[in-house]
Amino acid sequence: MTRTYAISGSASGIGLATRTRLEARGEHVIGIDVHDAEVVADLSSREGRAAMVDGVKRASGGALDAVISCAGIAAFDPVVVRVNYFGAVATLEGLLPLLLQSASPRAVVIASSSVVHPVDDEIVDACLAGDEERAAAAPDASTPIVYASSKRAVARWVRQNAPTEAWAGARIPLNAIAPGTVVTPLTAPLLGDAGAAAYIDQTVPMPLAGHASPEDIALLLDWLSSPENTQVTGQVIFIDGGADVVLGSDDYWRSVEIPEFDVEIDLRAN
Fold first, then answer.
1. Measured between alpha carbons, how far is 222 from 19 in angstroms, rounded to an integer?
2. Using one digit for the tens of pLDDT, what is the confidence trace for 251-268?
3. Shortest CA distance to 225 belongs to which of 175, 171, 268?
4. Residue 158: inside a domain, yes or no?
5. Which residues constitute the domain of residue 190?
6. Which sequence positions are flagged as catalytic?
7. Is residue 229 in a domain?
8. Residue 19 has pLDDT above 80, yes or no
């Protein structure tokens, strides 16, 4: 049965690769982008986000099976938090009522392997508090650290919201993925410069197979947004060629407090 997907950032890169993959098997895709899309909208502004929601409602007839939020930018500019965090959250929250009409709704957003890089807590905290102007006014919002900060905020938003009544209670898996370096129009100029490419490979080492293609990432987005995904939710799934393993610790898990176990159970075989 044909499913209806809304994909932001559908005109290029990972969004386009995902759209192409889904349409190749007959799915209905509503693209969202600043150009070459069914819904043309600028997610950096509140007005653009409202127009996006209205446009998708009209294009979908009021029902969606999946939302895949791919739209994002990399720059040394406060617009990064406006698009990467507030635009992404507005896409997921704004289209949630349409997902409720589906028998198997799914939602995925692109974070980044840079979520493990240093961030500006002021930006992250302002994002999670919903204070867009404070996040955009932070001093680091005009520095390279703004990108990782915006993506860390997205990842934390997913973790906070996935188990809630609005999402898990409605049986909607909500996840994020964390790609490493992907060869897209966004990264091509940097990867074409020897010095910049060397710096990228130092900060995002990918020992498995080198830089990813958009099609590599589309595979994971496809599965996470499919009816087959019935148990994965609230996860930030790294698809980074091993970068997180190289940069991080092998003691990935943190201990949490669990309730005291005071129920007697007979585990003897019957």
1. 9
2. 777 788 878 877 666 666
3. 175
4. yes
5. 4-247
6. 147
7. yes
8. yes
Closest CA to 218 of 7, 15, 3: 15
| CA distance linking residue 147 with residue 167, whole number of Å | 26
SS3 176: strand
Q: How many Cβ atoms sit within 10 Å of the Cβ of residue 124?
A: 24
pLDDT tens-digit profile of 155-189?
999 999 999 999 999 999 999 999 999 999 888 88
Q: How many domains does the chain have?
A: 1
Quick one: tokens of 74?
Answer: 């990399």
Rounded distance between C-alpha atoms, residue 161 and residue 175, angstroms: 10
Quickly count: other Cβ atoms within 10 Å of residue 254's Cβ.
Answer: 5
Q: In the predicted model, is pLDDT for residue 82 greater than 60?
A: yes
Integer angstrom CA distances of residue 50 from 47, 72, 93, 186: 5, 17, 11, 25
**In 3-state terms, what secondary structure has residue 101?**
coil
